[in-house]
Amino acid sequence: MSLSLLIFLPLIGFLFNGFYHLKMARSEQKSSAMISGVIATGVMFAAFLVACTYYYMLSQLPADGRLFEQTLFQWMKLGGLNVSFALRLDSLSSLFVLIITGVGSLIHLYSIGYMSEDETPAKYFSFLNLFCFMMLNLVLGSNLPHVFLGWEGVGLASYLLIGYWYQDKDKVLAGQKAFIMNRIGDLGFLIAMFIAYKFVGSLDLIDLQKATLTPHVTTVFGLLIFFACTGKSAQIPLFTWLPDAMAGPTPVSALIHAATMVTSGIYLLTRLSPIIEASNTVLTVIGMVGVTTAFVAALMACAQTDIKKILAYSTISQLGFMFLACGVGSFESGVFHVMTHAFFKALLFLGAGSVIHALHEEQNIFKMGALRAKLPITSITFIAGWAAILGLPPFSGFFSKDEILWQSLSSPHGNVMLFIIAAASAFLTAFYMTRLLVLVFFGKSRVDPAKQKHIHEAPMTMAIPLMVLGVLSLVGGWFGEHHEHSGQEMMVMAASVILAGLGAGIAYQKYKNFEGEEKTNQFLMSGMGVDLAYLSVFAKGTGTLSKWFTTYVEEMIVQRTLRWSTAVVGLSGNLFRVVQVGSTQAYLMMILIAIVAIMAWVFLGVGQYGKL
Amino acid sequence: MSWSMVAFSAFSTIAIISSIFVILKKNPVSSAFSLILVFFSFAGLYAVMGAHLVAALQIMVYTGAIMVLFVFVIMLLNADTPVLDLKESGGLFKAITTFGVIGLLGILLKTVLRAKEIQATGNLTEDKINELGGNFKVISEALFTDYSFHFELASFLLLGAIVATVALAKRKSLKGSSV
Amino acid sequence: MTEVMVEPWMLLVVAMIVFAIGLLGVILRKNLLVMLMCVELMLNAVNLSFVAFSRMHQTLQGDITVLFVMTVAAAESAVGLGLIIAMFRTLKTVDSDQIQMLRD
Asked: pTM, whole model, 2 decimals?
């Protein structure tokens, strides 16, 4: 067994399903969701078993030497730069690998049911496997270019899957938006890589961790890396793509846009934490951006009516919490939250998918309600996810979120302001999640009567992942490392639980008998007009700039130069056209004159050769 | 004056005058007959120089084969019909060409005069050739030994020319042509 | 009276004059047949100069070259005349000025 199995298993799945899709598409047959899904799930589950084995083997090693490494081949060698294609597994990446393969295989399994009526399931599963392959490359890569390969690869897979139903133009545009927003962040990654090579001379992650850089370089490097993370992990200012990314199939939202890809920013920051921690500026920026994102996104989530958009903003908000944890220097609690969040947010998304599936693509929560009786499994598991994200003790979110809240107050980089905003975000989280839960599963039914009859509970392939994730959401918090709690920490815990209960209570009171549709704040609903601002500043700005260039540079300089040069060419062409009379004899005469001239020059000593 | 000088003067005069006729005669048939005269006198010049084989082949190939071909083609095309009444070249054109040709002549003359200084590199004087069995024998031996490869190549060239000519003559008209 | 022997350079002068006349004919005459004849004239002039140079160098390489030139000339005139016939069939003329299909 070797580490490469981890990445090759999904690759095999990708290739198999890709060729299967091509073969079926060529013969214009529908590929079977069962075959491709079982293969895709099988390779992921196999990878999960491998990951479990490695996790166990890793835990048997002494604490300071927990590292497996396998070099597959030399990738690039240019001057002093020597990049090898090597996989490296340590405790951080093993946790991510477990999440990716574990949650990943559950979501693959869920997809079999969810995509059973799709036209091209083999294509879908091949993209999903491609995503897992790239994501594993991201977390297993031993150097920055390898991480970047995965970083770009997951972006590609995300783009392909958001625009998976490519007949719908909005979905295609959403995919493009996600891709472009990510590219903006990637610029930061690239420049950070250049800086790392320039000042460290190596791109290996271990070398980077050990490197000592001057304060300025550290700050710039950290900020650039963080900028890359804001793109991938949907933080301010590059968060607007994630709500739109909900255009993709719901399992995709669960896997890519909740559990794994969007957390790669946390992975990168944690991986490079020695450099990040070395600069107070970087930490402050990360903390501020994280907490602001957490609060603003939670606020926006309160105004959404689309079940998936609520969860998308919720994801942004939870990612903000994770970045807050990184920003106060408590990377381990951020990673811990990544894990619990992967469980409960994947669960919530899959539950939402189940609801959407049951209601035949209905996503508006004001057209749902009282689904508890009709969808018992979905509603129970959804309540588990709800309890986890609210942070009710003793469920998983409680441990990770309270740890972050406590760290934001008590850590050397934390302060009261961060804590208050974070607590307010937690309150809002409780509010919007309860709103969602009550509107969908409780109260009165507002479902379209035509659809009322067809509501059905999810098939087994979809129910099993829900149940597994439900259990994980409830007990996932016990996997973390526990320590003695001080009295102050107990106070913080109590405060956060009370806040969550308060938010939940208010929402329950407001929405328990809600009828009709809520008029939500348009400003908040549209993502605070950030999209509009980007449109007017960047898109229109570029438009204006191009117009200016068109009028002045293009017309006055380029066109004129072109016109002049064509005029010169045309003129000389007309000039020399005279000799092209089309008469053989005329040509012969010209040849004669030329020969005479050349011979006169050569033989009569006019030139330097002369003298026969 | 030696007999060879007499022959040389006669043949060269005929050659030059006939070649002037070739280009001056309006009727292609007259040109063709003048050309035959040129070829004959060239054969004579070769003979004066002792190049007997070349002289014989000149008569056989040029006057015997090529010129017959020319005359045949002229007859085939009815070349003395009014179709072939061609416009003369313009005066300026003629002047420039003549000027160019005179320039060329001047350069060639200078070259020719310098050619007198050429030193012999071989040893095949006329006596030596006669000793070896005469011009025919020496050239033929060289042709079938040292130059046999080139000789074979020449046969391929002729074969190609035959195929090309047949293909050209067989075709009804040039395809896609428009006048 | 001293004997005036035929020197090879005299042949060169003749060859040169015939070559010039042939060149003039190729350029000034518009009948393709005559043009082809003038090309033959030029080839012959060159042949003559080959023989003359051969005598000057006292080798026989010039003579042999002439044989090959004759072969080429035969092939050339055969193909050339074939082309003229084909052209005449299509265009009904042997005027080189009329054959300008590639000009426009």
From this structure: 0.65
